[in-house]
Amino acid sequence: MPKKSGRPAKGDEKNSREHIIDTTVSMIKTKGADAITVRNICNEAGLSIGTFYHYFRDKDDLMMYFLSETAFDNCSLKTDPSKVSERICELYMKLISKYQELGLDFMKSFYSTSNRSLSAYMGEVDGVFAPGTVMARSEKELNDALSFGYISENADIHTVCMDICTIVKGCVFEWCLNDGKADIQTSLHRLIGNYLSPIIIS
Q1: In this structure, is residue 134 part of a structural domain?
Q2: Do residues 167 and 132 share a domain?
Q3: What does the alpha-carbon distance between residue 14 and residue 19 come to, in Å, rounded to a whole number?
């Protein structure tokens, strides 16, 4: 049974948070993502619901942890900057590979229109992408490509980044609809390549 206290004991904060995360991973693997509710997590972890809300706003906020733990601002890319579309695809495949590691059940539950945390992560606030997100890194990459003369000076970089993000969401959604059988990497390279082609300077 969950404990009555809504806050962890002093010194136990880190352990309680990690226990919630570890319990969630275990439940996804053994019971599937549909079993993930705040109450079920707390029952399984032996923690109070109050303790859960001490660390996370809701279930979606907890799920977002598994994606936001990866910072994209300093991640290494192997593709030469002159190969703009291929480099952007490599960047986004780092995110998609993370999705695939979490599993199909997780992504089907997580990648929904009701997930406010995902919407916030994959969006913008006042025309700015959140630091450390894949969109912010994508914008940096395209601004670098612009300064190097690899793409047209008339390109609206921010809008291009938003469009690429939409393409990626579509590819992930298609992957979920096809039970993980869709060749997401091939689709991503084709669609992003076709989209960027008009603004890339050969």
Answers
A1: yes
A2: yes
A3: 8
Alpha-carbon gap, residue 202 to 191, rounded angstroms: 18
Q: What is the pLDDT of residues 29-87, one digit of tens each?
A: 788 777 889 999 999 999 999 999 999 988 878 877 877 777 798 889 999 999 999 99
Q: Cβ distance 27 to 16 under 8 Å?
A: no
**How many domains, the chain?**
2
Task: Measure the CA–CA gap between 132 and 69, rounded to whole angstroms.
Answer: 10
Alpha helical stretches, state H, the chain: 13-31, 38-45, 49-55, 59-68, 84-102, 104-110, 116-121, 134-147, 157-177, 184-196
Bridge partners (DSSP) listed for residue 128: 125
CATH of the domain at 103: 1.10.357
Q: Tell me how far apart the alpha carbons of residues 65 and 44 are, in angstroms, rounded to a whole number.
A: 19
Task: Give the SS3 label for residue 91.
Answer: helix
- On whether the CB atoms of residues 76 and 94 are closer than 8 A, the answer is no
| Bridge partners for 200 per DSSP | 151
51, two tokens = 């303790």
Residue 25 to residue 115: CA distance in whole angstroms: 18
Q: What is the CATH number of the domain that holds 48?
A: 1.10.10.60
| Domain-embedded: residue 117 | yes
pTM for this model (two decimals) = 0.79
